[in-house]
Batch of 3 targets.
Target 1
Amino acid sequence: MKNKIFSFLFCLLFIFLSGCNVWDNGQNLSSDLTTNAQSQFVGSEQSRTESEDINLSSANQAENNQNLLIEILNAGQADCILITLPGNRYILIDGGNNNDGQKLVDYLKSKTISNIDFVIATHPHEDHIGGLDLIISSFDIGKIYMPKIHDSDVPTTKTYEDFLDAVSNRGYKISPAKAGSTLLDEGNLKLEFFAPNSDNYNNLNNYSAVIKLTYGNTRVLFAGDAENVSENEMLKAGFNLKCDILKVGHHGSNSSTTKEFLEAVDPKEAIISCGMGNQYGHPHAETLQKLQAAGINIHRTDQDGTVIITLDGNSYTISKHKDINIDGN
């Protein structure tokens, strides 16, 4: 009798764990909290303009034509990037801090967004995925990407649990973000992952998904929180890192943006997402000095507000919007 009861309970447990598995490759990687965590995975002429006091409708202009719009949202000491593709398709890279979630939801709804084609969580730190549980609960999502984290590094934070619970509750799966894979390849539009290149790091930041977007003649590199270890891997892998615009890694920390990496990317513009007077001192002086020495134009969300890049396939413009702010802290 005891054997029958044990077998019955074992079957129930197996079904429960299988149901929780929303990694799209079905691979279960760990136990305890990590069981729950990992089982959830499945050259042209360039122009610049600066505008300080403009209203929200100007941020929607690119949605009505063949322009591509990138919004580096002012989320304080956090990352959140909204990309509007031609044809009103949307990509969200990270979701700010926990306290930013509702303001981000409200902002997207103000743009009449009801579904997001791709959500990319670069890595499971609170300042990148904090608001994503609300996003996943509030919008229809086409596909979710996130790097797989080694068992020993899986976070045990409530923020990460909330993110995974939101994915599971909606019945979604998480596709692994990894170097060498392509998210989109449509004519003059391409979105590809350049990192992570390994499956085990000593620092969660180096698991960061690094993404290159190409639209016509303009290229943009989103570096997440990738640090020098990941940057060196990308250099060794031989990726074509050269871009016009660099979303600077790790909020401008001196742990990222090595001299060699910056030379390979060779951007004209650098955008840093950071909070005013943040406790980490981001962006660090060393990083700013490297960018300035290379003659790169620097844009900062703590000073400029939300930075919006409009790409038409031939050139780009950059505008600054202090009135767009999703910082909930």
Target 2
Amino acid sequence: MMQYGPMKDSSLENDGVSHPHQVGQYPQYDSFASEFLDHASDGFFNAHYDRPACFELLGDLDGKRVLDAACGPGLYAQEMVRRGAVVVGFDQSPRMIELCRQRVPTGEFRIHDLANPLDWLADETFDLVLVALAFEYVDDRVGALRELRRVLTPRGALVMSRQHPTADWLSQGGSYFDTRIVEETWSRGWRLRYWISPLERTCEEIHQSGFLIERLLEPRPTDYAATLNEEQFERLHREPGFMTLRLVRDGTGDR
């Protein structure tokens, strides 16, 4: 689960934990999971920017079986259950799963990395899949998407959000068209590594994994967000920060 916010420092250097050309599978959010929950519960970027856009594209959830991939501390899962969904979720962070189980006792949650095969889930068993602000941390995004496609029903949909590539370019500089890993220390001292890539790369990964883009949102923050941070509110009404996509199976068979 990713959260977008102000940074203190940014570099492309490898810190020795991961391969220079891989984000790797270390659970980066585990050490500050509780702090993240407190921050994201009613935070500008999570509660009043990303979550509303994701729920707009998820649509009616009553009676739906939903897979919450990279579920974080359960903020999305809690709302999905409130709207009538049956939720199964996973995250690579043991602490996040602990928080999720406390927050959403009716859900089914386990420790699992989005980069690994979903060998514990049967084919075509979910009406919807949600991946909120998480694909940036996956090295093999096509492989992950193919697995999520496998567990979707034929008429199901996958909703994913990610940082907007234009926002990444404005923040990081360099060539917009480069696909590369960035390493940042955010204002709370959280040190993170993730991928940035141009829009055409994301679209190609979606195509290679057997999905079509049904809808794409470039969301704006809710009106209430202006009371939390007027400067960020105005900026995100001028330029994009996130984008949210609803994907459907392309109907051409397994890839």
Target 3
Amino acid sequence: MRVNYQILLKQNLQDLNPIFIGESECPPGYEGFANVNGNCCVLYRIHRGCGKVRIQNITYPVKAGQFFFIPVGEQGPMTADKEKPWFFQWIGFTGTLAHDFLQLPPVFDVPRSITDQMYDLRTPCENLASRITSDLFLLHATLTKSKPDRTDHVQQVVDHITTSYMHKFSVAEFAKELGINACHLSRLFTKKMGRSIQDYLLTVRIFNSKLYLNKGYSVKEAALMCGFNDANNFTKLFKKKTGYTPTQWKSKLALNEDNVPPYPQRPTFSQMVSFEQTDKDREPLVYHRKKKESCQTECE
């Protein structure tokens, strides 16, 4: 049996913390256990083939395109089909939100629009741990959240950005999913929230990038983990929001200056705005040369 297994960079995240990932191509009729470790939850994605898995004393058939979840303490005996043995990938993780996956059926489907965004181990990835983390949050936000008030479109935008800020976001596409006009959605949001959807998204992304910088991640890593594909554009937007470049921010942390505050793990948006204003009120670092900035968000 071909197995590819990797232990991920230690992140010590509280909500959803991936520990290891792997993939297996099973021979016909192969028998094994889905959760040998037993100390964490394991999420499986079947890419091709089929088989059976036993979860909480019930045996379930599983086919290509489906997922199944093994909770802590369950071993999950599994058997590959003799004619069409399966190829699957898995994520082992812990965290306070891991229990929410128990809301789902033991074997479940995930919309194609979501799986198309998820990482495939067969593709090289520079920041694997952060990529897998964002996939877990995407699945959690999509599959386990309580049913929102379908008439409160603004809250739906807020909920989506809060949990999926690290992914590409299009106002037009999200409005289409809600079944309303994109301009109308933008007007509703601005009227209720006092700022545009793009600025709301940017505020959430920049705040979370500061959390990653505080933990020691590089500027490029923080940018990628918060939805910025271009580190240079991230630097411009960070400077616009905080008065500092990300590198200057990290320098202040290294100096352990008192005016760099500790940030809460799961802040409200009002807290993010408060810290944003505090950043702007600080005395800026001296630049050798000032450049005219032209900042364009990556919301679209």
